[in-house]
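Hi! If you just cloned this repository, the fastest way to understand the data is to look at a raw example. We've pasted two of them here, unedited. The first protein comes first, obviously.
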Amino acid sequence: MKLPDTVHPLRTIARWLHLSPRARVEVSETPHADRLTIILPVLNESPRIAACLDSLIAQPKETAEILVVDGGSTDGTQAIVNDYKTRDDRVRLVDASPVNANWTGKAWGLHVGLQAASQDSAWILCVDADVRASPRLVRSLLSHAKHTGVKTFSLATNQRLSGFADALVHPALLTTLIYRFGSPGKATTNLHRAIANGQCFLSRRETLLSMGAFNAAQSSLCEDITIVRRLAECGETVGFYESDGLIEVRMYTDWRDTWRNWPRSLPMRDQYFGWREWLGLLKVFMFQALPLPAFLLAVIAGGPLWFSLTMGALSLIRVCILLGVARAYRPRPWSYWLSPLMDVPVALKLFRSALARRHVWRGRVYVRRSSGVFELADNGRPTIQQSIH
């Protein structure tokens, strides 16, 4: 049956935005012979590291060791880790201080952790201190790798929001990833299509070492993206998937924290950033931010019918994406449904961040060089102790 002509443009737009259904990481409790090392980079994480470690020590025997790589905490984080060492001998505190001035903090923590990982571990799982993992996480990840043959991938996490205002800001920022990279659930060797979430990232130890993945990210403010771009550049297939409640995270303390800090890394400006990445940001403005206000203006002002229909169709796609992304937020404040109102400020914020040459992160000032890498200002002297989260 031939579809109406009006359907084909919508299908074309949806295909261009990569919105087709995708694969997922299924929950599994199948045991595996391979062993795995968890690397957890931290600095001053005392408010949340206990809950994270509770979920990590609940992982099964495939988890050979849990390396907590500390960059010089002064808030009692190390004492908490030492307490967990008495509960589970897989927990090990690795001193990574002081942070190398030629590295950004988290990349340094990952690098030190990889060097310290046991050679008996075939796999490396990188997580952040804000993560709460299901006890079935490790086995589910290993099962997915075995069944699909994709040996490097990360998970889209379920999100915990701080409240009403955060439910306006955070989903609008998250949705920019959908417009640039499409729905989770694919694997690629195209470095410009590769995407990752450093909160839950799995790869083979030998792959990371042989391809210098963490070294490539030493001057990046979006280290997870730079790592997978390096791997894809070397021919590695990189995946990004959703799962059924395997991992949850609360990224920021409140909406101000979200608005101030996430746009620093979200444009993904690194040494691989080029015209394709600028096109991705343009997609955010043209297809996420612009249609709804343009549609309302056209209806109110009586614009041309073709323009109203086009903006209306794009607004409908935005609503469909809003419905789809909702499953990432449980519980979900009612203000979530108003988050498209933040699309224009979000798009402008990302463009401004991508153009900025100087960024401040946890008291350190970074300057972007012509090559795309970031270096510490003031000849590498930090203004305040750097966080490696």
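Ok, and the second one:
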Amino acid sequence: MQVSTKEIALKFGLELVGPDKIVFGFSVPENQQDNTVLWTKQLSIFSEIFTGVLVAPKEFKGKEKDHVTYLYCDKSPRLIFARILNTFFQHLIYDDLKNNVEYYRQDPNVRIADNCFIAENVKIGEGTIIYPNTTIFSGTIIGRNCQINANCSISTIGLGFEYDGDEIVKFPQLGGVIIGDDVEIGPNSTIRRGALGNTIIKNGCKIGSLSNIGHNTEIGEQCILTTQCVVGGSSILGNKVFMGINAITRNKIRIGNNVNIGMGSVITKDIPDNVVVYGNPAKVIRTNEP
């Protein structure tokens, strides 16, 4: 489906600045494309957009660039962006209702147990084992020699919502999950798909049981997340991060390399490299030698 920016502006009461464009889909600031719609509420990101159709707050007017069409709004740009996708681009949302597990079982280099659900548009590396009752949704890439234990849910739709008065609007979850090589996911754990980009778990990570990895999170190489860990959406963990039992991070947290997080800790602020943190809220208690 395609839609013009004039039609979008009229539908949602937006102010159109720049040439009328035909929109075919969406993109993100990190991978901007023409004829796609993006959004931002941050002036720093606004200034870095050089193509496409941008939904932005009206207070940013006067800072336009050539080759960009602007849709200015009074409400939350994220809300308007969600409404645009929900109205015009429902066809881009994955169809995760058909089980294609028998197709993946044809690969002799992959072992898949009974009672698994694997949607289309999934890639599984050789040597990977998937244990019973696991669900893997579309947009998932799993590397080599991984172990996905029983009752896991990979690329699950996350909790993405925006308030519009008394109405709660679902923010489309259109991204995926990329899992590197030699990764182990413990039983009953959930890896949420990216809202627009991808949730990324890099090589050698070990994630324990009953853990939840939020959307658009990036977990560095050789991290160990023990049981019942929660990583808030859009967080970034460096390499060799250890999270003790029941450790939690707020969303959009940045954690450096070689960090130990004590059990039960609640991370509310960014953490530098090479430290041990503990508590609620967590505080640096000593250095952690590399």
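That's it. A detail worth noticing about the second one: The mean pLDDT is 95.
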